[in-house]
Amino acid sequence: MDERLHSLAKQPYADKRKQPIWSQIYDRLRSALDSGLLPEGSRLPGEDDLAHMFGVTRVTLRRALSLLQREGRLVSRKGVGVFVRSISVRYEVRETEAFNTALSGAESTMEALSLVRKPASDGAAEALGLEIGEEVTEVRFIQYSQSTPYYLAIKEFPVSVMPGFALDYEKTGSILDAYAAAGIHSYVRAETRITGDFATEEEADLLRISRQAPVLRSRSINQDSNGRGIEYNRGCWPMLSVELVFNNKTSGV
Amino acid sequence: MDERLHSLAKQPYADKRKQPIWSQIYDRLRSALDSGLLPEGSRLPGEDDLAHMFGVTRVTLRRALSLLQREGRLVSRKGVGVFVRSISVRYEVRETEAFNTALSGAESTMEALSLVRKPASDGAAEALGLEIGEEVTEVRFIQYSQSTPYYLAIKEFPVSVMPGFALDYEKTGSILDAYAAAGIHSYVRAETRITGDFATEEEADLLRISRQAPVLRSRSINQDSNGRGIEYNRGCWPMLSVELVFNNKTSGV
DNA sequence: TAGTGGTCTAGACCACTCG
DNA sequence: GAGTGGTCTAGACCACTAA
Q: What average pLDDT is seen over chain B?
């Protein structure tokens, strides 16, 4: 398959006044990714080799690579190489369903990174109506699909509402069960706020995307049936790998 | 104020093993933008001058500039210069309110770019449950806030539901009035889908952002009180200039 | 015509990773 | 130590815009 990449690289360029060379290289690499010529997880040839193959300088080649990195299709690891990141499909995340981690037809695993008790963040305190300095149980999650990380979340649960959350969650591994153990059998996603941003260094490392890659962020509030705030959630996806779906089933206005 | 920019540029750089020079230049330019040293709409010195001021090559300087351009804080116009784009605040767009153009405390103007009758797009046909080839009235909008464009929209209204839309809208300039003229006095935002993407060339020109700048996209469906699809809307914001807010007022689950 | 941003080259040195 | 990606330089030519 190195040979096929060579033949892709050796084609003559179109008039560069119409489309810059770096953009043409980008197109060719993208087609190589789409066609499976460069399969997910595989390593690209070194930048020196690639630049030579495409008949350009490393600077020009890197311009094409960096665009693919920002899109989340490639990831570079310093001193190691450039790798194809699996992006496959855009996941549909239904914000209005019973649980916000619902995924459309893709097996996914949610893994807790940390679980600590601490004072509520400013955002959580305001959203949940907590006193200053009031404590929450903070859990950090990362979600994988086919071993590719694609979602980060920080959830805060007020200790005053769910004093046993840490134990309940560690025992069952389920947030819904921890809700139930605190006597909460129904809740509603009261508000969701969506913004775009660029990944922080930590987020980029965890999601295995390049720094400065754009991400979608959500901040949401869960309330129990009495309107009491029970969860504040901050989430983050690589921009191109998710589609958020909001439904209103109510009729009339 | 050129003098203040000079003094900002002439400060010595920190250890470049800790933070690359282009990143340090980025930080200084950003602080110049935040502090108002480079006011909105103003033109930056030429790249040759800036590079000389910061003691680096144009290539290095441009790396800092391009990041600010992708963020939508700067816009370059070939043969003219680099300008400060007003970004000011993040607009809150409440998707669940009566009308999706509701803005939080900012005077804004919506301007129709075009109004044509044509076969429904694939997305509209599927979303609104139209026959193949069924006609819609398509209206393209651009929304400004303080003369800065920040929202593009393409709306499709089925001719079968609102045969007089074009005339009604042109007469009143109001979508709600055109709804009413067709006998629709209440409707609901049935579904909204949010994705991230990069601006197309046309979008970048209209929104006055740089090419390859990330954008937030929405695709939404309006239904009348009988559940009939009456509008399909595709919208697009510069990624960093909007916050989308979704509320669920229903209690219980 | 003069000045601007957009592109590209041919080098160079560095920090990092891994065998 | 060898190979990798990350950064930076000092030039150059081009297309575009406006006076």
A: 86
Range of weakest confidence among A88-97, A194-203, B118-127? A88-97
Higher pLDDT, A1 or A233: A233
Q: What is the pTM of this model?
A: 0.89
Ranges for all domains in chain B classified under CATH 3.40.1410.10:
89-247
Instruction: Determine the residue of chain B that is closest to A221 in CA distance.
Output: B247
Residues of chain B with CATH 1.10.10.10: 2-84
State the Cα–Cα distance between residues B158 and B31, nearest whole angstrom.
49
- Measured distance CA(A239)–CA(B216) in Å, rounded: 9
Of B95, B193, B196, the CB nearest to A214: B196
Whether A47 CB is under 7 Å from strand D? yes
Instruction: List, in order, residues 6 or more apart from B34 with CB less than 8 Å away.
Output: none
Task: Note the helical H segments in chain A.
Answer: 2-10, 21-34, 47-54, 58-70, 122-128, 165-172, 175-181, 201-207
Smallest Cβ–Cβ distance between A188 and the set B192, B240, B253 belongs to B253
Q: Is A196 in Cβ contact with B196 (below 8 Å)?
A: yes
Q: How far is A219 from chain B (nearest CA, A)?
A: 9
CATH C-level class of A2-84? mainly alpha
Q: How many helices (H) and strands (E) in chain B?
A: 8, 10
Tens of pLDDT along A35-94?
989 998 899 999 999 999 999 999 999 999 999 999 999 999 989 999 999 876 566 666
**CA of B176 vs chain A CAs: smallest distance (Å):** 13
DSSP string, B84-146: EPP--SPEEEETTSSSTT-BSS--EEEEEEEEEEEEPPHHHHHHHTPPTT-EEEEEEEEEEET
CATH of B89-247, picked from 3.40.1410.10, 3.40.50.300, 3.20.170.40, 3.30.2020.30, is 3.40.1410.10
Q: Which residue is the nearest neighbor of D18, CA to C1'?
A: B80
Comparing alpha-carbon positions, the chain B residue that sits nearest to A95 is B246
Question: Residue A8 half-sphere exposure, CB side, CA atoms within 13 Å?
Answer: 20
